[in-house]
UniProtKB/TrEMBL annotation:
One Gene Ontology MF term: branched-chain amino acid transmembrane transporter activity
InterPro entries, per database record: ABC_transp_permease, LivM-like
Bilayer topology: Multi-pass membrane protein
Species this protein is from: Pontibaca salina
Positions of transmembrane segments: 21-40, 52-70, 77-95, 101-119, 126-149, 174-194, 215-241, 261-286, 298-320
Major site of localization recorded for this protein: membrane
Record-given protein name: Branched-chain amino acid ABC transporter permease
Cell compartments where the protein resides: Cell membrane
UniProt keywords, alphabetically: Cell membrane, Membrane, Transmembrane, Transmembrane helix
Tagged with keyword Nucleotide-binding: no
Cellular component terms (Gene Ontology): plasma membrane
Cited CDD domains: TM_PBP1_LivM_like
Amino acid sequence: MRVKNADPAAIVPPRVAVRTWVAIALFTAFALVPVLAGWLDDPFLLVTATRIVVFALAAMALDLILGYGAMVSFGHAAYLGIGAYAVAILSSYGITDLGLHLLAALVVSAIFAAITGGISLRTRGVYFIMITLAFGQMAYFFFVSLSGFGGDDGLTLRQRSTVFGQPLLENDLALFYIALGFLVALFGFSAALVRSRFGRVLTGTRENRIRMQAIGFSPFPYQLTAFVISGCMTSVAGVLLANQSEFVSPAFMNWHRSGELIVMVVLGGIGNLTGAIGGAIIALLLEDWLAVLTQHWRLFFGLFLVLVVLYAPGGMTGLIRRIMGRAP
């Protein structure tokens, strides 16, 4: 029997529903980490989990443009640095409120993303990759030149951001749950965005730019908007990273860091927000475990990445789907 006048937006594909449940399971597991840390009497476990949450947020933000918009940004770590330095610079002037730190990070990153994205999106393919890399390195060397804020050596924060005047984030548990709250909220926002009309146009542009233009859509404003949103989300991760490490450095925005974010997205599965979070978990845990075993851990990490690309091109989520008998 055919259903008439069905609302397409109300129909949730089974794969989307599965990803939603997987995301809920991941967030629940994250929420239980402090319980596990207390049971094991291992406070460092909470520190590691906070770092993973922060980079999961950054990887998810990158996947929004890489996976859904086919924009391979090799300078995305610049927004991590912008967020981190928003905390450091404002704190040095006595402005310690988290809300103001976030506001400054969002405004500066939005302006930077609008300008650099507007220029970068005039190019495609490898030229887009190279120009985003160039802009990222320009931001890196700009902060290296700020000798008043540590220059290349970085700057240690005197204190973490305050919440309504209270040093709430000085407690590692509070910082973890606030970071997790941002991850959950921005995941919900991103998931709604990619399922919206905006997200469908962005995905359609990824699949066939010429066809989208033929049916009346101009890809540029959609891609630029997504680029700005992604940069702003990454700057939120930068604010959280500064508070977690209590230290900021231009190294936060080096091109190596951008490469690490891309690796996280590839490991989890490109075009899958849940996969980006999973990729961050795998990459950071594997890095920690291999570093304990050998000082040459990067070699083995590289071999693992090669195996994933060769035998699981859809990332770990694609591999799991094949194991479960689902279509890749």
